[in-house]
Amino acid sequence: MQDNIIQVTVVDREGIEHNLEAPTDMAMNMMEVCKSYELPVEGTCGGMALCASCHVYVLSDHELSEPSEDEENMLDQAFFVKSNSRLGCQIKITEVIDGLIVQLAPVNGE
Amino acid sequence: MIQTDILIIGAGPVGLFTVFEAGLLKLKCHLVDSLGQPGGQLNEIYPKKPIYDIPGYPSILAGDLTENLLKQIEPFKPGFTLGERAEKLEKTDDNKFKLTTSRGTIIYAPVVAIAGGLGCFEPRKPPIENIDFYEDKGVDYVIKDPEKYRGKKVLVAGGGDSALDWSIILADIADEVALVHRRTSFRGALDSVEKVMDLAQKGKINLITNAQAVGLNGDSVLKEIVIEEEGKENYNYQVDHFIPLFGLAPKLGPIADWGLEIEDNAIKVNTLDYSTNIPGIYAIGDINTYPGKLKLILCGFHEGTLMIQSAFKHIYPDQKLSFKYTTVAGVNGFE
Q: pTM for this one?
């Protein structure tokens, strides 16, 4: 692993896999990483867990921290929620998620 | 009919502050917003969140910033049309703009400032294939008159305050009320959660948890909802009405059809004065885009300030404008 860089994979809504490099030293989250690679993630609230527009499914078996009550509350406003649903903005880019695979959840009307 | 100098679409922080800058130049403003209250995202999404990058405020709650802005523009007596969406914008013969809102309010102005943020907040629609077809034929995203549901079979979906509160109210009115939610806990006020649980125990609300509505069936009107419930085969639930309450999400909406240059859901502007491709229409705050754009409240304040100087020249091309500091000239409002 390159210093301070991890690899993550994002499967977009067309099923295309994007292998992305993400820095661990910039306090980023998955929503921001997707946006910086211009993947179609809205992140309306800017990462406060106050909207559900960065809804993703975690496909790999990484042990992520449990979603907070705020995150669960916002997932209530999302659609197509599954047991592996998370808000991208609440997944911090750290070494423990190296190799993480997430899929963008469907967006209504797209 | 309303006449003003500057018609501001969007009563968020940037739209509000622009009233102040306009007022200093003796320009009157009228604001239109689809939400029922001023403040935009600040009040709709995060009223209790602290903001740290408003100059001069080490920390200020979003809702308090709105309060302060309203106080700051009070001397300039802006007009407000709230709870109405800016629908249609036309050019008039005398080189003005005519805006028609979703409720038919008409506003005339020589200058339009679009401070629409992320767009209009609209109810989130569940992604069910034929849901558009059943709108007003059994599917309602907003409850206007609860009496409509008297004696009917109603299924409410959602886990927040509005889903809980309406389920409680409808339990007394409708023939049958079901509440479908994706998990067993609710995020609403504790009091409402307890009431729903109590009504569920008494059999007045059919609480269906770990479940979601995934399909709609009927003929000319809605007849049944397909429910996906954990550990069960999908089943049909007979209803007259389906009321999905999943909060609001912003959509660019009718602004997209006004002939403005749009790029990635934002309006392209010239950074000289934040003018759009249509003379007399400006776009400020989160709704505009230009090289180097940052979606920050403080940038929106700057954009509104420069925009007003240009708007003055657009309205009064022959008048000279002398720039005055508020420390020198004070703030003289309208009588």
A: 0.83
